[in-house]
């Protein structure tokens, strides 16, 4: 693994849908159901501010490990009980292309998060978020993270089925989707 610069690699929602759908079909042997694809895209949107702060094509802000390369940047985790938002520098996996990232993302979720995967296959955004938490995927409060995935699910459901009226959800200042990108773009090269 090689350390690479932490650079933003924004993509459009439509590009994400196409690449993630193709990766799912290649890995699973059949195309995803619309709700399954919408769940996966919703979580990516939550983690990356709808791809505006996508770094090195790391779709889910996956910590260093499954990618071919890695980068580091300042982010935050929720630590303690009650959880407190804490800034820190973390190392994250990095990919050279959106397509390679999508392939790894699908395989990573399928192999390491069975509870979440089952919920995604059933088109259940809240169950998906809760399933990710079971195995420690994120540190944010479960209700906050699940609400963010559910909010983005509605948007991505429309994009997946080709509804031209899809808009970003309105998120409150405390929603995980807003918190996930607060200050992040200023720290990247």
Whole-number count of domains: 1
Class from helix and strand fractions: alpha+beta
Q: Note the main sheet.
A: 3 strands, mixed
Percent helix, as a range, is 40-55%
Helix and strand run: EHHEEHHHHHH
Based on CA inertia axes, which overall geometry fits? globular
Measured by DSSP, the beta-strand proportion falls in 5-15%
The number of helices is: 8
**Could you give the order of strands across the largest sheet?**
1-2-3
Distance between the termini: 20 Å
Query: Based on DSSP secondary structure assignment, what is the total number of beta strands?
Result: 3
Mean pLDDT: 90
Radius of gyration, in Å, reads: 15 Å
Q: Low-confidence runs (pLDDT<50, min 5 residues)?
A: 176-189
Give a short overview.
The chain has 189 residues and is of the alpha+beta class.
What does this 3D model show about the protein?
Strand 2 (69-79) and strand 3 (84-94) form a beta hairpin. Residues 176-189 have low confidence and may be disordered. The protein is 49% helix and 13% strand. A 3-stranded mixed beta sheet has the order 1-2-3, with no helix packed on it. The chain has 8 helices and 3 strands.
């Amino acid at each position: 693994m090689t350390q690479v610069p932490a650079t933003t690699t924004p993509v459009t929602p439509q590009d994400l849908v196409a690449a993630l759908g193709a990766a799912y079909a290649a890995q699973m042997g059949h195309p995803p159901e619309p709700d399954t694809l919408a769940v996966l895209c919703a979580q990516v949107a939550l983690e990356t501010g709808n791809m505006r702060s996508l770094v090195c094509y790391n779709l889910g802000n996956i910590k260093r490990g499954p990618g071919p390369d890695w980068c580091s940047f300042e982010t935050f985790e929720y630590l303690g009980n009650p959880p407190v938002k804490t800034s820190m520098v973390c190392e994250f996996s990095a990919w050279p292309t959106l397509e390679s990232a999508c392939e790894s993302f699908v395989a990573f979720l399928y192999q390491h998060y069975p509870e979440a995967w089952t919920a995604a296959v059933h088109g259940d955004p809240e169950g998906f978020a809760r399933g990710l938490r079971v195995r420690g995927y994120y540190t944010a409060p479960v209700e906050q993270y699940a609400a963010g995935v559910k909010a983005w699910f509605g948007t991505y459901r429309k994009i997946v089925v080709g509804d031209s009226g899809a808009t970003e959800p309105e998120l409150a200042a405390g929603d995980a989707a807003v918190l996930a990108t607060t200050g992040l773009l200023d720290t990247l090269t």
